[in-house]
Write a structure and sequence with these properties.
With 315 residues, the protein is of the alpha/beta class. The protein contains ten helices and ten strands.
């Protein structure tokens, strides 16, 4: 079996945590069976004409050949690249263990169903979720200061979570069945995923498409009595849609939109990103990216206006 470690790339402590996880896994299955992005794509030294695209191609190639994934998510702001990779894996029938360092729970309403993540899609598709507790017990003997004691408690609970996640991954079946859910699409509808950061775009996009004569399907998971059931319906709708339009506005692509983009890509469904107010990121040796490179190169088109979206749909 080949294992893929999905993790946030852009902070040293995130890369270090992922490397720790990969090393623990490699000691049990062998290093040649573990793929760690950034590390195993030689990102710092890689030279390519379009570096971001080449990195995307290398990661996608691995996504197409893995048997299981372990993904690290820090909440409540979930990395969009990791969420995209989770969506791709799930739509490919690959089981996913999620390790989350967030000890909070979430709900759609004050008294609603408690969820491990702000977007119920993550909970709906994960084969197993391993969580870091609120605070680990005080190790003995105590440290030299209260700060060292506090650091030791957090380090101990993180170590336990990493080992638990590795064990959970190795206990998975070879393949997990695809998540199922009722789909409202007939293969001709356009699935529209709005951005929770800019809700005013939601009705505007849907109305523009309806005026253009398109059948529009919108998410169910945020209004369904059972958010997980609604999330599975959204996934099924995306995988059977004619096209997908995702509003990727916000500080980063919303986690649900990122996951659905990955699922659409793996399912062969054309997907476009709507992004009226882009910002760009710049990393060593890369071209400027208007979103995480796993989002930027996963989509078929990138638009900033309704008119451009309608032209794409008419093509």
């Amino acid at each position: 079996m080949t294992f893929y470690v999905a993790h946030r790339l852009f902070a040293a402590h995130d890369r270090a945590l992922a490397a720790d996880l990969a090393d623990r896994l490699a000691k049990k299955v062998g290093a040649d069976r573990v793929f760690l992005p950034f590390c195993d794509t030689d990102e710092e030294d890689l030279v390519a004409e379009v570096k971001g695209r080449r990195l995307f191609e290398l990661d996608r190639d691995r996504l197409g050949r893995l048997d299981a994934m372990i993904a690290i998510l820090h909440g409540p702001s979930l990395d969009d690249g990791v969420c995209m990779e989770i969506g791709y894996a799930i739509a490919s029938g690959v089981p996913v263990v999620v390790l989350t360092t967030d000890f909070q729970t979430y709900s759609m309403t004050e008294a609603g169903t408690r969820l491990e993540f702000p977007d119920p899609l993550l909970q709906a598709v994960a084969t197993r979720i391993v969580r870091v507790a609120a605070l680990g017990p005080l190790p003995l003997p105590p440290g030299q200061s209260r700060f060292q004691d506090f650091q030791a408690r957090n380090a101990a609970q993180t170590t336990t979570a990493l080992d638990t996640a590795v064990d959970a991954l190795l206990d998975l079946p070879d393949r997990a069945p695809l998540p199922t859910g009722s789909s409202a699409t007939t293969g001709t509808a356009i699935y529209v995923e709005p951005s929770p950061y800019l809700p005013r775009h939601r009705d505007h996009l849907a109305e523009s498409l309806a005026v253009g004569g398109h059948t529009v399907v919108e998410p169910q998971r945020f209004t369904a009595s059972d958010p997980v059931v609604g999330a599975l319906a959204d996934l099924a709708a995306v995988r059977s849609a004619a096209r997908v339009l995702a509003d990727v506005s916000g500080p980063e692509t919303p986690p649900g939109a990122a996951l659905l983009i990955g699922a659409a890509l793996a399912s062969g469904v054309p997907v476009a990103a709507f992004h009226p107010y882009p910002t760009f990121t710049h990393a060593h040796g890369r071209e400027p990216n208007w979103r995480n490179l796993m989002i930027q190169y996963a989509v078929d088109a990138h638009f900033s206006s309704d008119k451009a979206v309608l032209s794409w749909l008419a093509a």
